Amino acid sequence: MAEQVIEPANNSHNSMKVYGILLFCVTCYASMFVFGTVLVESFHPVALTFFRLVFINAFLLVIGWRFIKSEKIPLKLLFVLAGAGFIGITISHLSLYTGLEHTDPITAALIYALGPLITSFITYFYLKERRRIYFWVGIIMGIFGVTLVVSKGNGFMLQAGKGELLIGVTILTYSIYLVIVEYLSRHLKPMVITVYTSVFGLVLVLPFLRAEYVAQTFQIDMKYWALLIVTAVLTNGFCTMLWNGAVRQVGASTSSIFLNMEPFAAMIIGYIVLQQIVEPIQLIGSIFIIAGVIMGTRFGKKTHTL
User: Fold this and answer.
1) What's the gap between Cα 171 and its chain centre?
2) For position 137, what pLDDT does the model report?
């Protein structure tokens, strides 16, 4: 009897700890938009992408070397890994930081929140997964929410600028990347996929890099370098490991709920760091986007009954 009473308490305590980890990770992910906005004021987007990936790869190679050193990867999968790295790391990062030069971080975070819907939309065609009506309603709600945010409610006309379009490229390429990773996960360990795609992503940034972009960074204050290094390692290294560990304990469905909080975390961080006031239309749009994502991803997939 004593064990039956104590164990639920322990489970409750462990669950709260895991939820705290998930909330911490989501806050760090949301900060990427805000601190990215700060960093692109000093770094050229290509240089910012390059140096972020340098520090991310240094961290991943230290952590993941024991997983990849004895891994023999067929040539076909190496090409797939390179393609995934280019699409989901190189292009995704370049479009994100270039986009943040032209749009605010809250708008970027809200557009990015459509990611799960876009990924599901891609798998609808790629994997021929059947969808319920809720999925299509969720798509419409999500698009309507983004329209509100981008148009600022001006006649509900979609007036996307360069920044919004580039953030759209970011989430599209990252969604494609996730679908490719799903394929790769049938053949390779998660850490192997992460390290190789990240390394390929770094190498494939080089054709976009110019000497003047790098030379410019020598004049940048060390506090911005510190911000770049800490955010790179924390969000794309440390938090990824924490998140994966938490997902193993509470499941993907529960953890995905926390991802829906990312735009709201971006709003709070944006106000604290940049004193950016959240407009009412952004709040309304965010409600439609999050509701659409939840409806489309949690209730949109058809289940087969025997």
Assistant:
1) 8
2) 80
